[in-house]
Design goal:
The protein is mostly helical. It has helices at about 1-5, 10-25, 30-35, 40-50, 55-65, 75-90, 100-110, 115-130, 135-140, 185-200, 220-230, 245-255, 260-265, 275-280, 290-295, and strands spanning about 145-150, 150-155, 170-175. The protein has a three-stranded antiparallel β-sheet with strand order 1-2-3, with no helix packed on it. The N and C termini lie far apart (about 65 Å).
């Protein structure tokens, strides 16, 4: 059972727990009723969730979670048709149609003082932008993963990530030194290690909470730091989240001449992936020109 559970990531298990808890209450907290996970009963349960106003993505998540109880649900044509009907009724729209300019954030980061708290947030943002990685990856970095050289640093991630798979190589983040030290990720990392050494103790995780007892920082904490830096840089945080650094970084790299191969390798996408084209390759928010302007001009 432990080995079977290990096939799911911790984040996936937490997501499934929400759905299975709803399923438990839907069956009046009865183990016998909950064990009956037929297609017909799942349809009634999912329709109940739709009537409550859940989104298409939530319906897909609930369906996947119920597949733990009945693997045959994934092959049900009726459930497939039902989920498609939910999509038609409540179509999904992309979260972002444009992205922000990293120059605004980089200019702001150059003003940060060499103190542990602000420097932690500066390093978090610089790593997010220069690696185009998720906060999950940043939270997984340990001091033992760092390999410094005269050219820069290689971060050899040892933990399993969202993109980890038996057929994929483990992610390595390669960062080179930049002549402007105020925004150089390698120099910022070296300074951060010096600032955090007196309070690090036995913790090997790179990022620590900024208050005692300085525990390892969670993904939620890092996401909050990114959003805070965005807000102070003048970015509209009611529109953009911390994860938008991935959109901004990859889009900026393409605008500045990076090849798709370089972008895909850094972000952890395969050569055949269409994720970048469909979701991440976005114009700058301030540079969008509607068709009407071209017609009237």
């Amino acid at each position: 059972m432990q080995t079977l559970l290990a096939s799911w990531a911790d984040s996936t298990l937490k997501q499934y727990q929400v759905a299975l808890k709803s399923w438990w209450f839907f069956n009046d907290c009865s183990p016998v009723k909950a064990a009956d996970c037929s297609v017909e009963k799942c349809l009634v349960f999912l329709q109940n969730q739709v009537d409550r106003g859940v989104s298409y993505g939530t319906v897909c998540s609930y369906r996947a979670a119920l597949g733990v109880l009945n693997p045959g649900l994934s092959n049900s044509p009726v459930l497939e048709r039902f989920v498609k009907g939910v999509f038609r009724a409540t179509p999904r729209r992309p979260r972002y149609t444009a992205t922000w300019d990293p120059k605004l954030v980089l200019h702001h980061l150059g003003t940060y003082p060499r103190q542990f708290v602000p420097w932690s947030k500066k390093l978090c943002m610089l790593l997010a932008l220069t690696s185009a990685q998720r906060v999950q990856t940043l939270a997984a970095i340990t001091v033992n993963d760092l390999r410094f050289s005269s050219a820069g640093v290689t971060i050899m991630i040892s933990s399993n990530l969202k993109t980890s798979a038996p057929t994929r190589r483990q992610l390595n983040i390669v960062l080179k030194r930049f002549e402007q030290e105020e925004v150089c990720p390698v120099k910022t990392l070296e300074v951060f290690l010096d600032l955090s050494r007196p309070i690090r103790g036995d913790s090997s995780q790179l990022f620590l909470c900024t208050k005692k007892p300085f525990r390892p920082a969670s993904t939620q904490t890092l996401g909050r730091w990114l959003k805070e830096v965005l807000a102070k840089s003048g970015i509209d945080v009611t529109l953009f989240t911390g994860h938008s650094t991935r959109h901004a970084a990859t889009s900026a790299a393409l605008r500045n001449g990076a090849t798709l191969g370089v972008i895909f390798k850094a972000a952890g996408w395969t050569e055949e992936s269409t994720v970048f084209a469909r979701h991440y390759c976005l114009p700058l928010l301030s540079s969008e020109t509607p068709l009407s302007s071209y017609v009237l001009n």
